[in-house]
């Protein structure tokens, strides 16, 4: 028994409606899975670099401490990175004197061969911590070099995630230890800087109640 044209059209219409309802969720879930994988890879890659550096330079608690940025002289964050970590990372580009107005003035930018990137530096006037902003999409790093309209539209916990380099307590490379993870925009003083920590606590899976939409 065949189907009438009307029945076929009705069936196709139902399929179309169902697809329209489920496709956005599928796309969002796929984006989340990609970011989860990228965060795990970045975290693992950076800590592996620390372990390899320790085999050459000894315990990291005895390493030089980058207390000043490149522009101020002394052992800058860029020189520190070049000495201790760069040899053990697979990077395509490292940009010296990377300007991020809201946190550091002369940090550095890193583009990885897998299409992600990070900008790192001493957080001058903010916490003086050695921080790294990780970008799942490498091109987003270009949007934060000044306090401009593009940087104000970036979404923490989606476009970038905040990590910290520790040489003493909790040594190594860890997500920034903060409970702040909420829907907002911008990079000023790194709002919502605890999103990577939240995901790490959930075994590197974005929680079902995650406050930022993908």
Distance between the termini: 45 Å
Number of discrete helical segments:
4
Q: Give the overall shape, derived from the CA principal axes.
A: elongated
Reported for the largest beta sheet, the result is:
6 strands, antiparallel
Work out the radius of gyration: 21 Å
Share in helix: 25-40%
**What structural category arises from helix and sheet content?**
alpha+beta
| Strand order, largest beta sheet | 1-2-3-4-5-6
Q: Would you list the SSEs in sequence order as H and E?
A: HHEEEEHEEH
According to DSSP, the number of beta strands is 6
- What percentage of the residues does DSSP assign to strands (E)? 15-25%
Show the helix and strand layout.
Layout: H1 5-57, H2 77-84, E1 91-100, E2 104-112, E3 117-122, E4 130-135, H3 149-153, E5 161-166, E6 172-175, H4 195-201
Antiparallel strand pairs: 1-2, 2-3, 3-4, 4-5, 5-6
């Amino acid at each position: 028994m065949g189907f009438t044209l009307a029945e076929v059209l009705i069936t196709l219409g139902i399929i179309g409606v169902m697809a329209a309802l489920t496709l956005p969720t599928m796309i969002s879930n796929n984006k989340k899975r990609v970011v989860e994988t990228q965060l795990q890879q970045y975290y693992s890659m950076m800590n592996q670099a620390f372990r390899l550096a320790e085999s050459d330079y000894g315990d990291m608690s005895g390493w030089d401490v980058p207390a000043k940025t490149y522009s101020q002289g002394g052992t800058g964050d860029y020189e520190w990175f070049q000495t201790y970590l760069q040899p053990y990372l697979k990077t395509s580009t490292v940009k010296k004197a990377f300007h991020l107005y809201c946190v550091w003035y002369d940090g550095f930018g890193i583009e990885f061969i897998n299409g992600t990137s990070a900008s790192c530096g001493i957080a001058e006037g903010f916490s003086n911590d050695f921080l790294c902003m990780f970008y799942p999409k490498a091109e987003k790093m270009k949007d934060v070099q000044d306090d401009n309209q593009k940087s104000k539209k970036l979404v923490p916990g989606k476009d970038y995630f905040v990590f910290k380099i520790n040489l003493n307590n909790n040594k190594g490379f860890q997500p920034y230890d903060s409970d702040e993870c909420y829907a907002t925009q911008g990079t000023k003083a790194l709002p919502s800087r605890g999103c990577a920590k939240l995901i790490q606590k959930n075994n590197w899976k974005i929680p079902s109640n995650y406050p930022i939409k993908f």
